[in-house]
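Entry for flavin mononucleotide complex. Fields follow.
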Amino acid sequence: MPQRKIFDSGFRDELTQLLTWRRDVRQFRTDPLPPGTTERLVQAASLAPSVGLSQPWRFVFVEDARRRTTVRNVFETCNAAALAGYSGEKAERYARLKLAGLDAAPCQFAVFCDRSVLQGHGLGRSTMPETLDYSVVLAVHTLWLAARAEGLGLGWLSILDPATVVAALDVPKTWHFIGYFCLGYPAAEDDTPALERAGWEQRCDPARVIVRR
Ligand SMILES: Cc1cc2nc3c(=O)[nH]c(=O)nc-3n(C[C@H](O)[C@H](O)[C@H](O)COP(=O)(O)O)c2cc1C
């Protein structure tokens, strides 16, 4: 008998709620994560699709205070540079945004793609090698949703100089930096992106992104 798993409408409604209430979080409570959380979330992330079943994602939990300070300093420098790129009212708005949760999140981690991974035997990536990186981003999103389902928030921090972060984390040369993340209990929950609430940007009508040929 072929296996079958049916998700009912109640589950679909819940899933829509999960997608609606997932947020990029920058304001965290300092409460620690329950024991086993990181292992559980990496387990969930590992269910993500990956090219050739290569599972190239690598998670580096950053616990060392000196390494954390390096990342924090890099963020401050890059954020100041980004602010300098705006002028007038946009600069004032940018300065008011909180764009990282490094000050309070109990957990910080970097995610890498092991571009030398042998798992998957190269299937599917000779024509599009970038699919290895895409696979890692899918794992991030899977973890993001799994975290939210546990009441946790995740924040993606890209206002960083990747080379400095990579050097601070001392990882194999074949690992390509994908992103840096803060994880913890959100200070508040919302169904609307922080940037939308701050008047920076609005979500567009999904109908606008569909093209038919
Ligand atoms: C690749 C990527 C990089 C991001 N980098 C940052 C960042 O550096 N700082 C920040 O505050 N938010 C960052 N975000 C969060 C986005 O601003 C956020 O996802 C978007 O505004 C929609 O909000 P939502 O995730 O709460 O729906 C990033 C998101 C992605 C997907």
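NOTE: The CA atoms of residues 44 and 143 lie 6 Å apart.
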